[in-house]
Amino acid sequence: MFISLSLSGSGPISSVLTYIVFIFEVSSNAYKVRFPRFIGTKIPFSINSPSGNVRFYSTTPNKTTFKDFKDINADVLNKLLKTQEVSITEAELTRLKAIPGVRFGLPLNDQTSSAFEGLVGKPNTRGIKAGVYIFTHIASGAKYVGSSNSLSRRLDQYFSFKHFNQRNSGLLIPLINKEGLEAFNLEVFVIPDDIGLEFKNSNNLNFNFSYLFLEQFYLLHEKFNLNTQRIVNFRVDQGKTVYLYSLDWKVLYYCGYSLNEIKGALGIHYATCTNCIKTGNSYLDFFRISTDYLDRAEKTKLSLQELLDLIDMKRDEALKKSSSAKFSKAVIIREENKEQTLEFPSITMAVKYLYSIGITADRNQLAKHLDTNKPYKGYIFSKA
């Protein structure tokens, strides 16, 4: 049996207090001090909650936080993230660190809202921007870093207080709830759409995880003391890797590490992906979806936004093609309780004829009544 004993000091709220966690091995006759597992830091924040004055603590080891960003390199990140089977090169990390941040005072006003939307886009739109955001508590300098593949949606949750009903919400949300957004400023780092093209030989296909690597870089600095978790979850173990190829399998458009990622990033439903994978059917007569990686396929030169635009265009084409095929069927119409019939080359032409004699009909409803022998608008409809 093991007992974890935490010994902590006390002092002014502005000081950093250390504690040592000892692990005791309990045997039938003795206690053995095995090893001081790590030395950590106590975060100097007290936040009022409905249940009273609650003090929050970080259990992050000092050995995984740094005082100087210069000490946080690709080797440090790769060792930390080894179990998640993701990695980054020093050149890739250097490029990410060079992305400029844009700072906003909070809450946003009419002028800054326009600039903010120009930077990250609007919530619930397809023009998504991935990146990292940093909240800084103005009075104390305390910082929180987060990331998202859709900055507009994520930050809107803070601005609209959608996060605030969550339990176990850490340090940032209670502090915003207590002091308001005006107690913070916000810095946003947007990942360039074409950043993956700069590292086309990277093992990180399409550089999907760029924003997560950048978040992990900042998390390892000790000044981000509003974060209660110090290791980013890349969610690479949530299912099989899914690849989006061209119809001829020659181009790799996207690599997603789960069906959930494909749904979130590309808007392709789980059921659609699963059907294409199982049957081998194409997607939108333009793409292939597979769980097999083909090293002969060339990685796309499209940015994520350009890929989304291409998917939207192919969806529109498929919808028009489907609609055209649906309504181009030749039909025979017969007035109810009469023998005389009329034939038209398409449903659309039949609808136009009915309109010419004062009857307004819907193409979709007419199509549903084909070969049912059920009257619609006083007529029976059948395929020619």
Shape: elongated
Q: H/E element string? A: EEEEEHHEHEEHHEHHEEHHEEHEEHHE
Portion in strands: 15-25%
Average pLDDT: 80
The largest beta-sheet arranges its strands as 6-9-7-8
What does the main sheet amount to? 4 strands, antiparallel
The helix-and-strand class reads: alpha+beta
Number of helices: 12
How many domains is the backbone divided into?
4
Task: Tally the beta strands.
Answer: 16
Write the SSE topology.
Layout: E1 2-8, E2 17-26, E3 31-42, E4 46-49, E5 52-55, H1 74-80, H2 90-97, E6 102-105, H3 110-120, E7 131-137, E8 143-148, H4 151-159, H5 172-179, E9 184-190, H6 195-198, H7 210-219, E10 242-246, E11 251-256, H8 259-266, H9 270-279, E12 287-290, E13 298-299, H10 304-327, E14 331-335, E15 341-344, H11 347-356, H12 363-368, E16 379-383
Parallel strand pairs: 11-13
Antiparallel strand pairs: 1-2, 2-3, 4-5, 6-9, 7-8, 7-9, 10-11, 10-12, 14-15, 14-16
